[in-house]
Amino acid sequence: APTVGYRINTDENWDYHETSLKVAEIFDKRDEMKDALDRMDAKEAVFAENVKAKFGDQKLMYLRVTGNDIRYYAYGHFGYLYDTYKFNRAQTFNPEDMYQVIDIDKLKDLNPDLLIVQADSQELLDNKLKNTPVWSNLKAVQNNNVIYADYSTYMLGFGIVSQEAIMNQISDEWGLK
């Protein structure tokens, strides 16, 4: 079958709207995609209102635990958590850097109210986070405000389907309307 390749330029643009419209145009479905994007924008706006109403000034961290380090994602692809969904960043840093490598002491100092954690394995999650003395003292852990993120949805997802799945998980686990 014929194949069309399209490279997503994530160095400059993490907006799935533009990519979705370009792909839809290839299949002559631009109007349908525009409608779907408009519906998603409306859902995201309501979701953001619910986030602000429930969590106010509380701080969120998206952590990824890898074999090499612990990363706090706050920009790039993960900027939607803060810019679209209106969660507050636990800390700001250079927006040109998608993530910041942190250690367990830095995590202790930041002590976020809310955590979304994605680990490359259960063993890494346990050894680098859960089995440390810091973990049980974090506000997010004490208040049961930790979500464990699925790699394929959060790290590979880049569009309407993944955004909806992420909003659904956050809503279900943190009791948003």
Give a written overview of the molecule.
It is a single chain. The chain has 177 residues and is of the alpha/beta class. The protein has a domain at 52-174: Nitrogenase molybdenum iron protein domain (Rossmann fold, 3-Layer(aba) Sandwich), CATH 3.40.50.1980. It is built from 8 helices and 6 strands. It has helices at 16-26, 30-55, 79-83, 104-110, 122-130, 139-142, 151-154, 160-174; strands at residues 59-65, 70-73, 88-89, 99-102, 114-119, 146-148. Strands 1, 2, 3, 4, 5 and 6 form a 6-stranded mixed β-sheet that branches. The chain is globular, with a radius of gyration of 17 Å. The protein starts with 15 loop residues before the first helix and ends with a helix.
Outline the secondary-structure elements.
Blueprint (H helix, E strand, L loop, with lengths): L15 H11 L3 H26 L3 E7 L4 E4 L5 H5 L4 E2 L9 E4 L1 H7 L3 E6 L2 H9 L8 H4 L3 E3 L2 H4 L5 H15 L3
Helix pairs in contact: 1-2, 2-8
Secondary structure: helix percent? 40-55%
Please give the count of helices. 8
Name the shape in a single word.
globular
By CATH, the topology of the domain at 52-174 is: Rossmann fold
Q: What sequence of helices (H) and strands (E) makes up the elements?
A: HHEEHEEHEHHEHH
By CATH, the superfamily of the domain at 52-174 comes out as Nitrogenase molybdenum iron protein domain
Largest sheet descriptor = 6 strands, mixed
What's the mean pLDDT score?
91
What is the number of beta strands?
Answer: 6
The chain-level structural class is: alpha/beta
Label the CATH architecture of the domain at 52-174.
Answer: 3-Layer(aba) Sandwich
Radius of gyration: 17 Å
Return the CATH class of the domain at 52-174.
Alpha Beta
> Approximately how much beta-strand content do the residues carry?
5-15%
